[in-house]
Amino acid sequence: MSNLLEVHEVSKNFGDFKALNNVSIQVPKGSIFGLLGPNGAGKTTLIRVINQITMPDSGTVHLDGDSLNPSHIKDIGYLPEERGLYKSMKVGEQALYLAQLKGLSKAEAKQRLKYWFDRLEIGDWWNKKIQELSKGMAQKIQFVVTVLHQPKLLIFDEPFSGFDPINANLIKDEILRLREEGATVIFSTHRMESVEELCDDIALIHKSNKILEGKLTDIKRQYKTNTFEVGLEAENKSALKSSLTEKFTVSEASFKSLNDDLKLNIKLENGGSAQDLISFLNQRAHINHFVEVIPSANDIFIQTVQNN
Amino acid sequence: MNHLPLIIKREYLTKVKNKSFIIMTILSPIIMIALIAVVAYLSNLNSEKVRVISILDESGLVKDVFKSTDKTTYDPLEGMSLDVAKELVDESSSYGLLHIEKFTDLDSVSKHIKFYSEESPSLPLITDLEEKLGNHFTNLKLEEADIDISKIEASKVYINIGQENFSGEESSKVDSIIKLIFGCAAGYLLFMFIIIYGNMIMRSVIEEKTSRIIEVIISSVKPVQLMLGKIIGTSLAGITQFVIWVIFGGLLMTIVSLVLGISLIDSSMPQQELMEMASQREGVEFYFESFKQALTNMPLMNLIVAFIFFFIGGYLLYSSLYAAIGAAVDNETDTQQFMLPILMPLILAVYIGIFTVIEDPHGTVSTVFSYIPLTSPVVMLMRIPFGVPIWQQLLSLLILIGTFMFTVWFAAKIYRVGILMYGKKPGYKELIKWMKY
């Protein structure tokens, strides 16, 4: 699969402050790409470079094979974290204006807006002023404006903030649907559960450097520690535990179960296989629960950031 | 993609459709005209009142000096002491009492004239009395010295110097006045325009920052385009407002003066002075004749063309600075520290225009300041009616355009960085650092 966006060794300084240091990322076509990092890591600067708002000091950005240039503006839809609309302007006028700035003709913009407004059931807002709408309502308009010109690349910076669960779900479904229709999505967020749910690929930026990038599944494979979560039914639990502790690295685990089990995390040394563990356990206890511990995006985030 | 027309259109329409803009546009001329009408009405009222001045002339020397007019009545008092007269005048509706004591010689009499009144009398009244008495006593002294007054009157000569430049254009004092009015009006108009609409641009930039729409906009448009669009759109709205003011104001003025039956313009100039001016110039006809000539004498074509160019140049120069300030700060209260360096040259220009250009339109100060870009639009516009060589105008305009391009570049830099900066209030140091981003 080819990459839609290739950022190659981009650096950006603001005075003495280094915002980006030789950052490269590859965003595959049709993927949802999670751009992660602690606050102030440089994510927003990178997004602004991709949007041609900020010019990089060095490095190149290619979109769909071409070096980034002003004609790409219409190929990108950007929903910034700091977002707002003209307060005293009417919803319809405003959406038309923003769509036209992205290169749509007035008639086309109107037609597509009507489609989207009907779809999200906000058709009767057309003549309202933004200041009469709630924050969540204004966010919906912003979402529509971002995707209206059917860009190849969609960049969402914290798209769910300010939405109630129902609307957040609605927007999530729309994002997934847009991906189905061929769009590539860059998704910047601090909410790891949505990363888990949505992202195919991630990149982690920390202190202006990219410290991790790849398919989420690959990264998880890389970060897993050969640890298994087990629930064991046995007569003498403490004897079982001490015999296990002799052979493996064992720690207490907690999960919900119906039985009064011995709950443990068992880490295998390099080379140890799950089969061996199962047969070892099978001889000593009744196995009610056996799951490989897969690191969550949250764990990976915290672990990687703290190690750097 | 060129979005400039789209941005201009939006800026213009939002400004024009704004409620406070509409109210200001309609209300301002009404308030202005109402104020003028009230002032005119009151001053008419004031001058219609007949003022009584009592005169106690113990010397008997000033009998025929004071002749009552329809505005002032002189009431001679006779055969009473000063104290009685004072009491009498205090009780009556008289404005005051002029007392001329009796002495044997003219000098003593003229030195001991006094005016008594309840409140201190107005300056014009005293000046008027002094002038009348002064003339009278001069004549009396001349008579005493046996000099024929009629000969002195006959030998008085009034001079009106004809002016003509080397290329043969005649001009007069009226010319200079008209030129002055033209120059000041043009300069002042520019000054007002910059302050009102420059501020409007600044506020509109700040609004985009505070509403946080800016990042969405500049992911579609270049900041320079957005800035220029804002400046041009707001200026067009300003011009619209100005045109409405002029038309609506003129209309209102005509209606009000027709209804009230008073001339609003003339009443600001005392009738007497007008008459004097006219009589000095051998009649009203001459006055209007020279007025007409003054108009045709002025380099009208040059004036109009120069007005357009300097007005646009100066306005754009300042408004780009206003836009930069708007981009640098978060809210209007933070703008103060940056406003001063903008207002200073502007105010300086107007002062130089009013004081120096009138004194000497082609002197060193006037000439130098008509080249310096921040003051040149105002000063040059005030100088041009007095005739400025074309090469000087072109040079000044060239410098202005050069500076304008520089400030747009400079403002765009600040704008580009500033619109995405939130939170901290930047100082000048920061602004210079932004240049390098």
Description:
The complex is a heterodimer of chains A (about 300) and B (about 425). In chain A, helix 2 (about 90-100) runs parallel beside helix 4. By secondary structure, chain A is of the alpha/beta class. Chain A has helices at about 45-50, 90-100, 105-120, 135-145, 165-180, 190-200, 215-225, 235-245, 275-285, 295-305, and strands at about 5-15, 15-30, 30-35, 60-65, 65, 75-80, 155, 185-190, 200-205, 210-215, 225-235, 250, 260-265, 285-290. Chain A folds into two domains: about 5-220, Rossmann fold; about 225-290, 2-Layer Sandwich (Alpha-Beta Plaits). In chain A, about 35% of the residues lie in helices and about 30% in strands. The mean pLDDT of chain A is about 90. Chain A has ten helices and 14 strands. In chain B, the strands form two sheets. Chain B has a four-stranded mixed β-sheet. In chain B, strands 5-6 form a two-stranded antiparallel sheet. Chain B folds into two domains: about 5-35 and about 170-435, no CATH class; about 50-155, Periplasmic binding protein-like II (D-Maltodextrin-Binding Protein, domain 2, 3-Layer(aba) Sandwich), CATH 3.40.190. Chain B has helices at about 5-15, 20-50, 80-90, 105-110, 125-145, 150-155, 175-210, 215-220, 225-260, 270-280, 285-295, 300-330, 335-360, 365-370, 375-385, 390-420, 430-435; strands at about 50-55, 70-75, 95-100, 115, 165, 170. Chain B has about 425 residues and is of the alpha/beta class. In chain B, helix 7 crosses helix 9 (about 225-260), helix 12 runs antiparallel to helix 15 and helix 13 packs parallel to helix 15. The interface between A and B is medium-sized, with 30 and 25 residues.
